[in-house]
Design a protein that fits this description.
The protein is mostly helical. It has a single domain, classed as Orthogonal Bundle (Helix Hairpins). It contains two helices and three strands, in the order ααβββ. It has helices at 2-84, 89-145, and strands at 149-152, 156-162, 169-175. A hairpin with a 6-residue loop joins strand 2 and strand 3. Helix 1 (2-84) packs antiparallel against helix 2.
Length: 176
């Protein structure tokens, strides 16, 4: 009778231990699912940011090329104006004014072209950083989804085994 009571007490204790272990594993599973969800969201944001930065970099590069072309055209126009400016005093004064304006425009366009080229380079760097961030987020997600959790009790092993994802887990109770 005493032995039977001790055995029942021991089984009750083992059941309570197993339930506590199961509850802890369920809590950890929920935590890992939350982490995986956050990592997925971060990955999605990184991918979107990388796409936007790539598009901005391409646009900035095209604008820089267009401004460089316009600057070259302005320089050509300035040279043409200088050649034709050799007529009469009034005509010469007007032409010098046009040359000065063309030089200013050419200078502004060259500065704008340089600024756009720098902006394109910065956007390329931002894109690389976004891709690196995306890679880190993917690695974190892989790390989270590939973890398997093991807990050892004094009478056996409780193991949470990972099948295809953290969301599909089984609890195994093994006694010695």
């Amino acid at each position: 009778m005493q032995i039977e009571r001790q055995r029942l007490q021991r089984e009750k204790q083992l059941r309570e231990d197993a339930e506590r272990a199961r509850d802890e594993l369920e809590r950890r599973l929920i935590q890992l699912q939350d982490e995986a969800h956050m990592a997925n969201e971060a990955l999605l944001r990184s991918e979107q940011t990388a796409d936007l930065l790539a598009e901005k970099a391409q646009i900035a590069e095209e604008e820089a090329k267009l401004l460089a072309k316009k600057a070259a055209e302005a320089e050509t126009e300035m040279q043409r104006i200088k050649v034709t400016a050799m007529r009469g005093q009034e005509e010469r004064r007007i032409m010098e004014q046009k040359v000065l304006e063309a030089e200013k425009r050419a200078l502004k366009m060259a500065e704008e072209s340089e600024r756009r080229a720098k902006e394109a380079e910065q956007l390329k760097q931002d894109l690389q950083e976004a891709r690196d961030s995306e890679r880190r987020a993917k690695n974190k997600l892989l790390e989270i989804t590939s973890k398997a959790i093991y807990m050892v009790t004094d009478r056996g092993h409780v193991r949470l085994s990972n099948t295809d994802s953290v969301q599909m887990c089984k609890i195994h109770v093994c006694t010695i």
